[in-house]
Amino acid sequence: MNETIKHCLTAGLAAALCLLLAGCGDKVEPPEAYAVGENSTVPLDSYLDEEEGGKLTAIDAPESEEEEDGEEKKDEEAEQLSESTGGEEEGSEGGDAYTYTYEEVPAAALERYAAALTAEEEGFRVIDEERAPQPDLPAFDGEEGSATFAREAVEENTLFQIAINWTAEACTVTVSCEEGGFYSEEEEAAEESQESSMTLNETIDYFYGLPPAALGLEGENMSEYTLLPGNGDSLVDGALCRHMNLYRTDPVAGTNVIIGAYLIGDRNIYKLDKIANTVELVYPK
User: Do the beta carbons of residue 236 and residue 279 sit within 8 Å?
Assistant: First the structure.
């Protein structure tokens, strides 16, 4: 009888221990902060409420976060492979993006978190797919949606980003550092203008191809004039324009006399008044 009782107690303790270990294995410890390199911010976990619901269920870290023993083993295998092939191992670098998966996160918790990210202390801004800052916070009350928050990272020309995607069942937060800065309309216009602007030779040929009267000039042929590059370029109405100086030979003195300064870009010709620092469109009108 004693042996039977002892066997039952042993079996019961083993089953209880298995259940306890299984329960511990299901729990994912929430992070104290979302961090990539030297960049960090508050996690969504800080704004979850037990009564409302929502919990962290999984963390997908970059390959660099694997266990040290596993890394050492892979390094040894790679070294053996390199020695056996007589060459170096070729590898690819994975992006340092962390994905945190949550379940049953209420809209109210996402709203609190978005407000915290965009507060002055954290300094994030809502951006669209082109990284253009948006004036308003997104609405989190839909069954599914997404929102991306960004601020300048410690690294130069890099954005520290928090991308949130949610459905009725789950919510993921992807934390990463992405190369590039915020979208700028002025910079974009300058780049597009630069790509579409005429070369110096094209600019001169275009100018000489017009009759003098079209530009308010005297004479019957543009061959009477000399067009030479000026100093620097300027943006006019979003178009990059070349600074050109126009000269005409004085038949008496035999020297070149400056007629005026022009800005030429995007098939438009502007006359530049250097004293008043103004431009006037002279062609086409």
Answer: yes
> What does the block give as tokens for 190?
């300058």
Nearest residue to 150 (alpha-carbon basis) of 194, 182, 119? 182
Cis peptide before 138 (omega within 30 of 0): no
SS3 22: helix
* Residue corresponding to tokens 């599914």: 144
- pLDDT tens, residue by residue, 47-78: 999 889 899 999 998 875 554 445 555 555 54
Phi, psi dihedral angles at 150 (to 5 degrees): -145, 150
Q: Which two tokens stand for residue 78?
A: 């790679």
User: For residues 58 and 103, what is the distance between their CA atoms, to the nearest angstrom?
Assistant: 10
- For residue 55, give the amino acid letter: K
Q: How far is C-alpha 167 from the geometric centre of its chain's CA atoms?
A: 25
For residues 137 and 115, what is the distance between their CA atoms, to the nearest angstrom?
8
Q: Which pTM value belongs to this model?
A: 0.53
The answer to whether the bond into 284 is cis (omega within 30° of 0) is yes
Sort strands 268-273 and 170-179 into parallel, antiparallel or unpaired: unpaired
